Amino acid sequence: MPPRYDLSDEALERDIDIQFFIGSGPGGQNRNKRETGVRLFHRPSGLAVTSVMERSQGMNRADALQKLKAKLRAQMVVQKPRRKTRPTRGSQARRLDSKHKTAEKKAQRGGRGFD
Fold this sequence. Notes:
Blueprint: H1 9-15, E1 16-21, H2 28-33, E2 37-42, E3 47-51, H3 57-76, H4 89-108
Antiparallel strand pairs: 1-2, 2-3
């Protein structure tokens, strides 16, 4: 059974550690000198997400929160158990018939170039 998490903003704010860092890339002096990058660490699940897409820390924080929610939702999905299946006799016969036809076709070529 997958874990269940409360995905409300208040519950996530309690359960995450927020770390700010200096992002890199385009964005000019603001991005290169200020801590606009955001890393969120969700303690109960151990998931970590980062966002450095925008030049503002607030927008990166909102983006990281959305990424974290998406990852937590994906973790909470219950996987359907896989049922083992076997090919039917008819499909096995058709596959073998196709292989025999291909083998006959190749045998008709006479083995050119391998004498």
